[in-house]
# Entry
Amino acid sequence: DQQVKQNSPSLSVQEGRISILNCDYTNSMFDYFLWYKKYPAEGPTFLISISSIKDKNEDGRFTVFLNKSAKHLSLHIVPSQPGDSAVYFCAASARYYGGSQGNLIFGKGTKLSVKP
Amino acid sequence: EAGVAQSPRYKIIEKRQSVAFWCNPISGHATLYWYQQILGQGPKLLIQFQNNGVVDDSQLPKDRFSAERLKGVDSTLKIQPAKLEDSAVYLCASSSGGVYPYEQYFGPGTRLTVT
# Structure
């Protein structure tokens, strides 16, 4: 039972255009959402996050939107650059869930390719 | 600030052999996590330590996997005996564990291939 879903395994966009990566979740207890970026042979690095009390968070070229009623979030990258080419993971967290405390539940990732 | 260190970076073993991975978290980080990332999947939590105590090991296959955190700093993850399906990248992460939410910092991972 996948609680965090990234239904697009890959996405290809042209340099300078907007990249939109989507993520859906099922557990209403999630109250914090993160995006991680991963290059080959490296560990995931934190990119941007959003609390469930907000619907938008912006950091430079990166913006995350949260639609709680739809249990959906998206990451917008504008303008996209070739260096943005990587796998992007959506992750969700709940303060207390089962026996864990704030553990991250990851989606399967979306591979973004930005073409020059 | 030094990041999360892991070793080895790559390991190839035959099935039924044993293997151990080492992790050194960011200095001062109380919480340490081990994740398993199978190709094409997202990282899946295996075990979470708070200082040297286990907080969550509900997804750790305890018949073959074990982990310890020595003196609340370094940690080792062991697999004995390994199976083909254990082929994956094993990621270590740490967080300060102060106020929620806990931002996790990941190491580069150890890629394990079981043949």
Notes: The interface with chain A takes residues 4, 33, 40-45, 48, 50, 55-56, 58, 91, 93, 100-109 of chain B (CB under 8 Å). Chain B is about 0% helix and 50% strand. The mean pLDDT of chain B is 94. The two ends of chain B are 37 Å apart (CA to CA).
